[in-house]
Amino acid sequence: NFRSPQIDLDSLYGLGPKEEPQLYQDGARLKIGETITGDSIKKTFLNDLPRAGYGHEDPTEALIADPRNDDNLATAQTDVACAKFHNKVVDTLQRGEGNFSKACPLHPAGCPPDELFECARREVVQHFQAIILEDFLPKILDKRGLACVSGGRPRFFKIDPREGMYMPLEFS
Q1: Residue 23: Cβ within 10 Å count
Q2: Quick one: which H or E segment has residue 38?
Q3: For the chain, which has fewer Cβ within 10 Å, the N-terminal or C-terminal residue?
């Protein structure tokens, strides 16, 4: 199992656009799938995970880094929301607009094309981590637990540098 133990959205980004190009529109943007409405309304919306489509063994198979993220609607829609946010950050960085100078500190007017994906990924991951730290964890932890998490290193997570860092399958 090669899942990351970090909160780095590896289930969204996979190994990146060079190693898993089927997840990406281009070298920087993630694919978004279409939601097709019923017979009475003939319109599509970009609000779904990308799907394999007709001609494949399973046309409804989600084309995402971690197929388990299509197991329930809340997880799937979180993936879609993060992918849409990533694509907006890419657009903003490309135009050199917005307050994303932290995402690409060497290029405050925007990222060069070869660094665009990494700059946007860094920004999206930091926002996701901030949501967890500032909104989610205060709702589920008591004050001491929250202070332990936000005050530095966790006490019970030890890493042996000789073994590397990995996530056991049963916890992923």
Answers
A1: 19
A2: none
A3: N
99 token code pair? 């307050």
> Does residue 73 contact residue 60 with C-beta atoms inside 8 Å?
no
Residue 76, judged by CB atoms within 10 A of its CB (0-12, 13-18, 19+), counts as: middle
Cα 150 from chain centroid (whole Å) = 22
State the greatest distance between any 2 C-alpha atoms of the chain, in Å, as a whole number: 61
Question: What SS3 string covers 105-171?
Answer: CCCCCCCCHHHHHHHHHHHHHHHHHHHHHHHHHHHHCCHHHHHHHHCCCCCCCCCCCCCCCCCCHHH
Tokens 């046309």 found at: 59
- Give the closest residue to 49 by CA, choosing from 16, 23, 68, 76: 76
Strands 44-48 and 33-36: antiparallel
Which band of pLDDT confidence, cut at 50, 70 and 90, is reported for residue 165?
low
Residue written as tokens 């994303």? 100
